[in-house]
Amino acid sequence: MKPIILQKISSRQKDLVLDAFFLTSGCFIYSASVAIFTAPNKMAPGGITGISTLLHYTIGTPLGIMIFILNIPLFILGFKFIGGKFIFKTIICTAITSVGVDLLGFLPKYNGGGSNMLLAALYGGILSGIGLGLVFLRGATTGGTDIASRLLKLKWPYIPMGRMMMVIDAGVILISTIVFKSIDSGLYALINLFAASRVIDMLLYGSDNGKMVLVISNKNQEIARIIISEINRGVTMLKGRGFYTGNEREVLLCAVRRQQTSKVRSIIRKADPAAFIIMCEAGDVIGEGFKPITKDDL
């Protein structure tokens, strides 16, 4: 009994250490992207950070402090309607981000100007994507758009959360375009937002995405055995029936990593050149051989 208790304590301590490392690192990386790239170039790529950037340039409020202050109403609503653990982590991350943005003010600013604004948008997006991705990996956020979207989803559950976030961010970018009187500022903010979202997706799903392969063949048994033995991937037999012929037949289903698709195609073609193959994108594959199932997936 004692070793089991010690093992649980050890696991809990490990999670706390990982949380502290990922959340702190992610928040400071995100803060650096704001302090170095987006804020100095008057880019407001959505969310509370974007609104804080607007206020910073219009009425001179401290950027980092305003990020935290503007999140306070969302924290209160989040505690009431979403739950304590998620909001607690988010408060910590928002506090670290707020301090980080003002603390990293000594870092050299990348003043884009002209064609270099594109570099500021891209590198700012990449850096913020890395920072936010590390935070999301530990089940937290830096507040703002994510909390607002979750709250709005309680009222309109049929609207996808990603679409809500996009609408909120687009609204902030539109306002920034009007306030800064610069269409370029809004367009570069969109590029920054797109770059950040792509990096976040790569961090969260990049190692776990792949291809879903469906095979209709007269040599299913042979193909399945070769796939299992040569690339060590599981194969599922699905029952199917041809609509035109009415004949029942089996359909192979297999999930593989992207780099394994050419090998699978070669295996199938060698076994049965007349096989019918469908390869679909699989954005997130969870289970044995890919990403393990966690509490967040249940």
Strand/helix succession: HHHHHHHHEHEEHE
| Biggest sheet statistics | 4 strands, antiparallel
**Average residue-wise pLDDT:** 82
Number of strands: 4
Shape: elongated
Helix content: 55-70%
Neighbour order of strands in the largest sheet: 2-3-1-4
Which class of secondary structure composition applies to the elements? Answer: alpha+beta
Q: Could you state the oligomeric state of the chains shown?
A: single chain
Poorly predicted ranges: none
How many domains?
2
Portion of residues in beta strands equals: 5-15%
Which helices and strands, and how do they pair?
Layout: H1 2-38, H2 47-58, H3 63-81, H4 84-103, H5 116-137, H6 145-155, H7 161-180, H8 183-205, E1 210-216, H9 220-231, E2 236-241, E3 248-257, H10 261-271, E4 276-282
Antiparallel strand pairs: 1-3, 1-4, 2-3
Helix pairs in contact: 1-4, 1-5, 2-3, 2-7, 3-4, 3-6, 5-8, 6-7, 7-8, 9-10
